[in-house]
């Protein structure tokens, strides 16, 4: 049994703080892209998620996600209220306090539902959002987290690799965003009205803070201050840079190099590398980030060109498809030479891992979409899912919160 390591503990606590900063960073990234009458509402959707999920995680979320396995499907209730979460856990992070591991994982549980908010900004009822977030965390995030990361989880058993949340975070959030956007319907004037961003500098600031926070997101997922953490940090930065450059070039070929596009590309690159950050080489990270950027870029063009769904801030294209590509790319580029705890992918002679990755992604996508759609429809028939047309026209800052971002 390993002993408590102060360096590992310090790195995990710092990483937890970095990941927490990513949620207000996401708020600014999204807040800059909406119209000025909905800025506060959009910022608040991310901020209030910190409070909601922090309490949910302590009360029962952590226990459902990482409690003693119950048939590979869900965790038991042994950790309700974080009872018994003290000494290092031999199953998860044996060199740090169990509570430090739980706190680090809490930050992932917080940002995942916050990511979904980009799909329904400018029209969602705040009351419905609060209920949705709690229900989604309980019935989607916590079970999928258990399947992929918990000892005995269904997808753990078959060998799915997800270093830092490509499946648990980005696939579940991205595909849930698509389902929710379809359930809530488009914004008033969609397809006829220009939805011009109110403050692109906000989005640039948010993306920059996300880039910094992602070092904790991926690097901290090594759960130790070691070579794998270093590997994850380098591959994260490399994928972000490659994706940023690819998006710049693609937008330049179409018209002009969009600043909002450039920072979006960086985010997509980090999404794509997340599942393989600690399993692949820096050269592989260039391919993963660059290809992921192109996939998301053209997906956005296709969706907006056909206007078949108003998925407002492209969560599905960036996180859903970026995460899916990253999960599959891990099955291509993973190497035990990088991380002996991983597996070799297709390009290292093992074709089976690609199939395992695809199965794991599908296992997350289907229930995430179905449950999300079901929750949204349930709320639509009970509390109401979206604000009235009049409230939407006035803007959610005034109609939902009684405040203005810009007096």
| Biggest sheet record | 2 strands, antiparallel
Structural class, please?
mainly alpha
Sequence of strands across the biggest β-sheet: 1-2
Count of helical regions: 14
- Gyration radius over CA: 20 Å
* CA-based shape: globular
| CATH-level-2 architecture | Orthogonal Bundle
Task: Calculate the terminal CA-CA distance, rounded to whole Å.
Answer: 60 Å
What is the number of E strands?
2
Poorly predicted runs are none
Strand fraction band?
under 5%
* Helix content percent band: 55-70%
What is the string of helix and strand elements? HHEEHHHHHHHHHHHH
CATH topology name: Ammonium transporter fold
Q: Could you walk me through the main structural features you see in this protein, from its secondary elements to its overall organization?
A:
With 407 residues, the chain is mainly α. It has a single domain, classed as Orthogonal Bundle (Ammonium transporter fold). The protein is built from 14 helices and two strands. It has helices at residues 6-31, 39-66, 98-116, 126-149, 154-158, 166-184, 200-219, 227-254, 259-273, 282-306, 315-333, 352-381, 389-394, 396-401; strands at 69-70, 74-75. Helix 1 packs antiparallel against helix 7. The radius of gyration is 20 Å and the shape is globular. The model has no long low-confidence stretch (mean pLDDT 97).
